[in-house]
């Protein structure tokens, strides 16, 4: 049985979710955090629904096996395709990035169009669109005509290659975002953990009319509320929480990409083998975790 | 025991290897071909050596389990990191894309610099460079100073997004290839199965001084020679060989990307589950296949 002293688990398809880990660590500095990045199989955003759900089950199963008291799905694509499934199968609370993003967008919009940008999987899952239509946390839903979506598949590789601020990225930005700027979106959800690294460029392109929504801070707040409600918040906060990193692969540009998202180099990442991943998925599937 | 009537197996990290399948099918139209694309875990080019070797063992193990008489490693990164390992462990002949590429470049160079472009993994493996230094198939090796390499990580996502012929691709091309053009490379190895789709643009950028080497045709020729030597060539060639497609995921843009590489839509792809992949890797590791 999980207690308040157990760590919080956070997983992502790769290293982009470190932006979420940072936000959670800032809001809940006393909590121990375990991060798992599925760097061997990244990206998830181009892959099919069933594949993403299988991967997410393994990722979350691994964290549950490490004794976490809560699972945060930092990956938008995994949140889109696997959140319901994980909530049904895991023995701990599960929170994703889409619901907080929807809530924040509904809080900020001033009656104009709301844009959502993300991977092919995230956009095609229709989850952001559903959330915006239905409303959330006391905010009413908005009409379908006000919801504008764009798949931005090149943003992830551009960020991973450190191409922020280049002419190439400016051209790609224009290619993807022109319809949203022309429609005068008043709010734009950054529906992928890589996109906060393009925040300034996106803001400059969209102009002052558009507020950008990065769900990391809202998600950290929601995580705190759930822990409080479940009596799982760590109250003895004298020491700073430990950060523990697990990855399924050390990619060639690991140090560079990791530092880009975390703001500093990752120390001591542990490598998780393919067989362990497979085993973690099976354990959760059987409900024996 | 494999006989001439058995199919040839071809695997790649994703769908790029379909360019190799086309070349093999053109040269050996009577042979049955089984293609496996590891679309659930694509790309390999950014991932570490051990991960790529594990994936390649599973991919090849799957093909051996399907009864192939030969394995063609159509992925450059997998050829770089796993070819020796596969030759040691598999019960059938194995051929990769790097050796034919090296041979073709040595045949074509006119004494000037030889360029190699590929993924981070392929370039950092040093396999093309080693091959060029050592020489091959009667062609002498060339001095290290004549070998110029560039990692081109954005080429794969640009091709997958169908951005050929755009201003964005022209800028990225210039970013990567300028040093090779300035050095007046007389030969340029396209060291990734995605790059043949950028062939015209690369040729236009590099100018007439540079000959481009796409190893698919040379590889098909080498495969034929090995089959002849092993008495495994299919001689009864009255009927056209069957093409059989297996994938670990159906990505969102499957139809579009598949047709781009194959030249026509892929009919009836079979999906291979994660557990089957894991099992295939174990079978080969034990040498029981």
Q: Please, could you describe this protein's structure?
A:
- The structure is a homodimer of 289-residue chains.
- Chain A folds into 2 domains: 158 residues, Rossmann fold, CATH 3.40.50.1860; 116 residues, 3-Layer(aba) Sandwich (Rossmann fold).
- In chain A, 45% of the residues lie in helices and 15% in strands.
- In chain A, the strands form 2 sheets. In chain A, strands 4-3-1-2-9-10 form a 6-stranded parallel sheet, with helices on both faces.
- The N and C termini of chain A lie close together (11 Å).
- The model of chain A has no long low-confidence stretch (mean pLDDT 94).
- Chains A and B meet through α2, α5, α7, α8 and α12 of A and α2, α5, α7, α8 and α12 of B.
Structural key phrases:
45% helix, Rossmann fold, alpha/beta, six-stranded parallel sheet, 289 residues, 10 strands, 12 helices
């Amino acid at each position: 049985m999980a207690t308040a002293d157990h760590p919080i688990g956070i997983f992502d398809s790769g290293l982009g979710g470190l932006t979420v880990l940072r936000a959670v660590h800032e809001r809940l500095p006393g909590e121990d955090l375990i991060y798992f990045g599925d760097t061997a199989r990244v990206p998830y955003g181009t892959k099919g629904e069933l594949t993403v759900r299988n991967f997410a089950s393994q990722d979350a199963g691994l964290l549950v096996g490490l004794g976490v008291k809560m699972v945060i799905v930092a990956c938008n694509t995994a949140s889109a395709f696997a959140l319901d499934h994980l909530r049904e199968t895991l023995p701990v609370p599960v929170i994703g990035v889409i619901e907080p993003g929807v809530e924040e967008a509904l809080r900020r919009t001033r009656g104009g169009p709301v844009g959502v940008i993300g991977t092919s999987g995230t956009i095609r899952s229709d989850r952001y669109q559903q959330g915006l239509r239905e409303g959330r946390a006391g905010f009413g839903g908005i009409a379908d005509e006000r919801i504008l979506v764009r798949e931005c598949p090149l943003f992830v590789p551009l960020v991973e290659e450190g191409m922020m601020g280049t002419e190439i990225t400016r051209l790609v930005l224009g290619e993807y975002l022109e319809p949203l700027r022309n429609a005068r979106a008043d709010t734009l959800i950054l529906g992928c953990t890589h996109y906060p690294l393009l925040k300034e460029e996106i803001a400059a392109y969209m102009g002052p009319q558009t507020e950008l929504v990065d769900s990391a801070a809202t998600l950290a707040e929601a995580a705190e509320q759930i822990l409080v409600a479940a009596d799982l918040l760590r109250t003895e906060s004298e020491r700073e929480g430990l950060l523990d990193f697990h990855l399924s692969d050390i990619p060639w540009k690991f140090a560079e990409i990791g530092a880009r998202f975390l703001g500093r180099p990752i120390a001591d990442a542990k490598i998780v083998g393919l067989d362990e991943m497979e085993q973690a998925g099976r354990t959760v599937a059987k409900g024996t975790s």
